[in-house]
Structure formats: C-alpha cells, structure tokens
Predict the structure.
Amino acid sequence: MEIPKIIIDKLKIAKNIVILSGAGMSAESGVSTFRDPDGLWAKFSPTELASMDGFMSNPQLVWDWYSMRLNVINNVSPNNGHKAVAEMEKYFDDVTVITQNVDKLHQRAGSKKVYELHGNIVENYCSKCHEPFTKSILELDKEIPKCEHCGGYIRPAVVWFGEELPQKAFKESVIASQKADIMFVIGTSGEVYPAAQLPFNAKNSGAFVVEINPNHTALSQYLDISIHEPSGVAMPKILENYLIERGRK
Ligand code: BJW
Ligand code: ZN
C-alpha cells in the first residue's frame, strides 16, 4: 500500500510526534498479541492470569505464565517498526512513545522517552508491602519468590485489570497527547481503557491521528486515517517517504 501523501505533509510541519503502541507493535518480533485469533487470550484466561484475584488464588500459576513470557521476550529483538520509531528522534523536536507493552522493545530499539502505561515484565515487587524486588529472577529457581521484608508473594510490575495505571506515566501521556501534532496509534485493538482514551485526547486537541494496524479496530472509525499494514512495514515506509520529501524541500 502506498503511504497517503497527507501523512507526509502533516509530518513536514510537525514538531511533537506521539506514538501509542500496543501488542501488535511487537508481533513481528515474535511476541504474542492478546486479542488476535492466535493471541494470548485465546489460550489463557485474563481473569486467572491478569488480575489480583487470579494471582491470589494461584500465585505460582501466574508466576509461571509471566516467567514463560519473560523467557520469550529475552530471546527476541526489536523489529523494523520499533527501529523506525526510534529513528524518528533524529528528525523531530519531540518524540514521545506511550506503550501498553511490557516488553521494553522500544527502549531496546533506542527510544528515549517511553511511558509504560501497563508497567513492564522485567521488574517485580512485593504484592503485600509493595517493596521492589531487586534480585534478578534468572538467579532463582522456578518457585515463586517471597519478599524478604514481609514474606508476601513477589509479582511482576505489570498493570492488571482493575489496577490503577502508574499515575506519573499516565498524566505525562495525557499531556503529550494533548500537545501532539501527529499521533500514530500502532498495533492496538483500542479496547482497554484508559489507554484507548489517548487518541481521543490527541484528536480533540487538534492532532492528526494515524492508525497502523492490519485490521479494523474499535478506534478506526474515529481516527483520521488507517493504514492496514503491519507496523514493521508501514513505519519504515512512512519515515522513508518523509525523508525523501524533506530532501526535496
Ligand atoms: C498488528 C500487527 C502488526 C497484529 N502490526 N498491528 C468497561 C468499559 C470500559 C472500561 C472498563 C470496563 N470494565 C472494566 C474496565 C476497565 C479495564 C478495561 O479497559 N477493560 C476492557 C477490556 C473492558 N481497564 C482496567 O482495568 C485498567 N485499569 C483501570 O481502569 O483502573 C481504574 C482504577 C482507578 C483507580 C484505582 C484503581 C483502578 C487496567 C488495564 C490493564 C490491562 N492489562 C493488560 C495485561 C498487562 C500485563 C501483561 O502483559 O500481562 O495489558 S491486558 C492486555 O490488554 C495488556 C495490553 O497492554 C492491553 C491492550 O492490548 P493491546 O495492546 O491493544 O493488544 P490486542 O491484542 O488487544 O491488540 C493487538 C492489535 O495489534 C490488534 O488490533 C491486531 O490487529 C494488531 N496487530 N499484528 C500492527 N504486525
Ligand atoms: Zn513485602
């Protein structure tokens, strides 16, 4: 698919770029999405594995599931989509990445300003006293560790359903969305709130909002344009077209 010229025209006058990414951003790296037909929620139960109630009723099961996913993430690399997003920092005044992903692939690709709305899978903390757990979990055996201060179970530093998002990251994300000249909404189904509210914050403040997703989503009809391609294809193409146009001036 050709990249519509309006996206390049908007980029040529843009200063503040915001990326809102979801699981589809990492799909081409080999990380599973959640709600696609072959996604995680097709095989696993979100209430059992991604809620405090689920964790309390079977902490070892939840720990094992996150260990399995951490193992996947440790063995994959950022893809061309992450790399194109990181490269944008060379050409624009301000690039903010707001991600729902817990895999740190944006940071590994070199993006500097990344807000992790749903935490990350690399860090852990005590589910009871909330003290950070600093031992590398690779050093541990497979049994769920317990807190050295209070004996509570250690949990991954991700945000489960019903839990508040990290407030600073969320507030900064709202501000960045309101200041955005252009927002790219990449690889998210737009079904989980409050993250899915951010494209509306951007649009209501005058941003041009572009969706990158092979499929139609809950957000598609509200955004300015949808590019139905994988992000590892679309984002490098957009950057390349922008650089060609800029070279022409
Ligand atoms: C590609 C591609 C390629 C494929 N290129 N694209 C009713 C209405 C509204 C809200 C609620 C409600 N009932 C409950 C709520 C609130 C709830 C919510 O939104 N629920 C809805 C599902 C109904 N939200 C919450 O609970 C949040 N907290 C909250 O609201 O707190 C309130 C509070 C305030 C004060 C005190 C206390 C509480 C928290 C949400 C946490 C979400 N957590 C998870 C798990 C994180 C940890 C982990 O990784 O295990 O986050 S769930 C899961 O969904 C994960 C994701 O970040 C999140 C979003 O998914 P995402 O990224 O959009 O992935 P998919 O799979 O859905 O979509 C992938 C897309 O990629 C698809 O569209 C593909 O087409 C596309 N794609 N390949 C580009 N190559
Ligand atoms: Zn503790």
